[in-house]
Write a structure and sequence with these properties.
By secondary structure, this protein is of the alpha/beta class. The chain has helices at about 10-30, 35-40, 90-105, 125-140, 160-175, 195-210, 230-240, 260-275, 315-320, 335-345, 355, 360-375, 380-400, 410-425, and strands spanning about 45-55, 60-70, 75-85, 110-115, 150, 220-225, 245-250, 250-255, 285-290, 300-305, 325-330, 350, 400-405, 405. Among the domains are: about 45-175, Leucine Dehydrogenase, chain A, domain 1 (Rossmann fold), CATH 3.40.50.10860; about 195-355, Rossmann fold, CATH 3.40.50.720. The protein binds NADPH dihydro-nicotinamide-adenine-dinucleotide phosphate. InterPro entries: Aminoacid_DH-like_N_sf, Glu/Leu/Phe/Val/Trp_DH, Glu/Leu/Phe/Val/Trp_DH_C, Glu/Leu/Phe/Val/Trp_DH_dimer, Glu/Leu/Phe/Val_DH_AS, Glu_DH, Glu_Leu_Phe_Val_DH, NAD(P)-bd_dom_sf.
């Protein structure tokens, strides 16, 4: 912990898993497993590089690019790339650590990694974004490969950026290889990849509700974010008959008093594809309120789908007043420690991100399989596989998270992922 004292988010993520693992090791009297946890908290490799690119005025800019290859015990490194002005090693360390556990839960052969750059696409033209992606890939190409590391998208990196980077890799290597997932289906992307994280969140929430003898029909849902995860969570919730009353972005919340409609959602998805801000998308039946978060409204289910630590203690206290049934974490680590403590004290179920949002990487894993076999599967087939995987992740959480009548989903996900990783590690000789 001392060594990483300048990385609070990484420490937060490790402690959150560590508490459950420590309890498990003590109760099961297997002290040798501590060694596995030590190995799993140290990244295999941290790569940092300079990215030089030319802006529209013909001036050169430099940004910092990263790839944290966290652990490849279960398979080649896999995890997203994030472009935001605040992207730093601390954030990528926490995300790479979480990704290792998440990928373990999917049951697919994937190690964990995360990367990105401190680049702000919001203040750039389309050509600047393209030139940045090309320059970024020129550096990253040295470190990735279908048997080595297969990145995907994340905040600020969608299908379009993946397309720019994939094309640049082809130009460098003259090889058409599955080195990125999240590609458009016209050139090797999997059907349903774009939707997978959001759809997976909703499938997971259905299993949580089924345990309580309930379903999504007519449930009132608050969603944060208006990006990939938020919008496809909203889409599946609408298909299931739920009422979505909020979306949000970094500047405020959009409140839909009568519920978001299919037509609102279509307009928002289209507007976001044109890189419009939520507040600038016209003709939707919602009120955009600046500087507000979505946690003040009464709802049954809470889907934080924007970013880490977006629900702090105060937000959690606000939410608890309305006694929601569950918080379903679409974003990575969206609840602060104090928020999680409050939810636990007040019996609000929490579906942890490493289980809930694993659908995205799971379909990325299926994209790798399709690329390897030079096949492309039908959307219905991929969706069925996604549903099976989310069901099986829920079962693992249930198996390892039972506490009397309740399921502690966080504990279940942490222990299930840890057991698989430590078992695999035991065959490497590293635990001897
Ligand atoms: P996008 O870039 O598509 O969207 C992010 C959304 O979150 C935007 O609406 C953005 O608003 C909002 N946001 C970002 N920062 C803040 C903030 N500080 N406060 C409030 N809102 C904010 O990203 P994704 O939807 O892909 O990712 C969202 C989360 O889901 C992340 O935690 C990511 O790691 C996680 N995730 C994503 C997966 C995927 O497949 N895409 C897979 C698994 C997890 P604005 O436009 O104003 O910045």
């Amino acid at each position: 912990e001392q060594h990483y004292s300048n990385m609070p988010q990484f420490i937060q993520a490790v402690n959150e898993v560590g508490d459950d693992v420590a309890r498990y090791i003590q109760q099961s009297e297997q002290p040798h497993l501590w060694r596995a946890f030590t190995v799993l908290t140290e990244p295999d490799r941290i790569i940092q590089f300079r990215v030089d690119w030319e802006n529209d005025n013909g001036e050169f800019q430099s940004n910092r690019g990263y790839r944290v290859q966290f652990n490849n015990t279960l398979g080649p490194y896999k995890g997203g790339l994030r472009f935001t002005p605040n992207t730093k090693i601390d954030e990528l360390m926490f995300l790479g650590f979480e990704q290792t556990f998440k990928n373990s839960l999917t049951g697919l052969p994937m190690g964990g990694a995360k990367g990105g750059a401190d680049f702000d696409p919001k203040n750039c033209s389309e050509s600047e974004i393209r030139r940045f992606c090309q320059a970024f890939m020129t550096q990253l190409a040295h470190h990735i490969g279908p048997d080595k590391d297969i990145p995907a998208g994340d905040i600020g990196v969608g299908t379009r950026e993946i397309g720019y980077m994939f094309h640049q890799y082809k130009n460098i290597e003259n090889e058409f290889k599955g080195i990125l997932t999240g590609k458009h289906p016209t050139f090797g992307g999997s059907c349903i990849r774009e939707e997978a994280t959001g759809f997976g969140c909703v499938y997971f929430s259905e299993h949580m509700l089924a345990e309580l003898g309930q379903n999504l029909n007519n449930k009132v849902c608050c969603i944060s974010g208006a990006g990939n995860v938020a919008l496809y969570t909203a889409k599946k919730l609408l298909q299931r008959g739920a009422k979505v009353i909020t979306l949000s972005d970094s500047r405020g919340v959009c409140y839909f008093q009568d519920g978001l409609t299919d037509s609102d959602l279509e307009k928002i998805i289209e507007g976001r594809q044109q890189r419009k801000r939520l507040s600038d998308i016209d003709e939707v039946n919602g009120d955009y309120i600046k500087d507000e978060k979505p946690w003040q409204y009464s709802c049954d289910l809470v889907f934080p789908c924007a970013t880490q630590n977006e629900i702090d203690g105060e937000d959690a206290a606000e939410l608890i007043r309305h006694q929601p049934l569950a918080v379903v974490e679409g974003a990575n680590m969206p609840c602060s420690d104090s928020a999680l403590d409050l939810f636990e004290e007040n019996d609000v179920l929490v579906g942890p991100s490493k289980a809930v949002n694993a659908g995205g990487v799971a379909v990325s894993g299926l994209e790798i399989s399709q690329n390897r076999s030079r096949l492309s599967w039908e959307a219905t087939h991929v969706d069925e596989r996604l549903q099976q995987i989310m069901k099986q992740i829920h079962e693992q959480c249930k198996q390892h998270g039972k506490k009397g009548e309740r399921i502690d989903y966080r504990q279940g996900a942490n222990i299930a992922a840890f057991l698989k990783l430590s078992q695999a590690l035991s065959f490497t000789g590293l635990l001897a």
